[in-house]
Amino acid sequence: MDTPTPVAAARPHFRLTVRPAELRDTSDIARIYLQATQDNLATFENFLATPEERTSWVNEHSGKYPLLVAELNGWILGWAALSPYRVRPSIEGIAELLIYIDRDYRRHGVGRELMRAVLSLAESVGHFKLVGRFLAHNDAGRTLCRMSGWREVGVHLKHTKVDGLWHDVVVVEYLIPENLK
Questions:
Q1: Could you report the per-residue pLDDT of 94-133, keeping only the tens digit for each?
Q2: Domains in the chain, start-ordered, CATH in brackets?
Q3: How many CB atoms lie within 10 A of CB 65?
Q4: For strand 67-72 and strand 94-101, is the pairing parallel, antiparallel, or unpaired?
Q5: Eight-state DSSP code of residue 67
Q6: Sign of the CA dihedral 154, 145, 84, 134?
């Protein structure tokens, strides 16, 4: 008698969708941002606290400065936003990138998919450079940037205080060669 050959169970295939954020996403965007502040990984600011701030912030992000969300089966797992790079004078063509991932989905490819989408979008709207800043002990953020072709420009030592402790901040940049011509 032949022994049946075991068949491996098919792994479910999940399709992560990256799309422009909508007002209905504001509470999820704020939830993920709050996790980042609680985990002291990616941020040293505190905004998106009130429903009004969230609605205003989402409405401000369109065109050259989009806000994208990564969605899986109706659940928002992360978001990425481009914002004007605010220096004096303002420099057209440079945007600042923020990426935040739900703590339960970090290191699962969500950041990589958001990064791919936002880099493509940044190129299509004419940005020639993206910049970012995050707490230096955020190893996942540093790895994502390095793997996506970003360059570490430097580290601001003792740049911000979080919960009474000083933290260093990494500064990164990404050049978009197609838009430097």
A1: 999 999 999 999 889 999 999 999 999 999 999 999 999 9
A2: 17-179 (3.40.630.30)
A3: 16
A4: unpaired
A5: E
A6: negative
